[in-house]
Amino acid sequence: MKKVLGINASPRKNWNTAQAVKKALEGASQAGAQTRLVHLYDLKFTGCLSCFACKRHENPADICILQD
Q1: What is the dihedral angle through the alpha carbons of 15, 18, 23, 29, rounded to the nearest 10 degrees?
Q2: Fewer C-beta within 10 Å: the chain N or C terminus?
Q3: Against a cut of 0.70, is the pTM above it?
Q4: In whole angstroms, how far apart are CA 40 and each of 2, 8, 12, 46?
Q5: pLDDT by residue (tens digit) across 6-29?
Q6: CA 7 to each of CA 14, 37, 38: distance values in angstroms, whole numbers, following the listed order
Q7: CA-wise closest residue to 7 among 42, 34, 47
Q8: Can you tell me whether residue 38 is helix, strand or coil?
Q9: Are 6 and 35 in contact (CB under 8 A)?
């Protein structure tokens, strides 16, 4: 079974962008795909803060130290 993820990056959950994503997911669902819609504004996420902790020698895995 195919899986389709719809991502709405707009802060408005019921406006044009969200409606377009929902319609696309409906079409994918009718074609037999498993679908899921994610609203980015519902997620607690922060981008890179440029702290460079990932670049220091104490962090051998080169991963972000922030837990978001």
Answers
A1: -150
A2: N
A3: no
A4: 22, 6, 10, 11
A5: 999 999 999 999 999 999 999 999
A6: 13, 6, 5
A7: 42
A8: strand
A9: yes
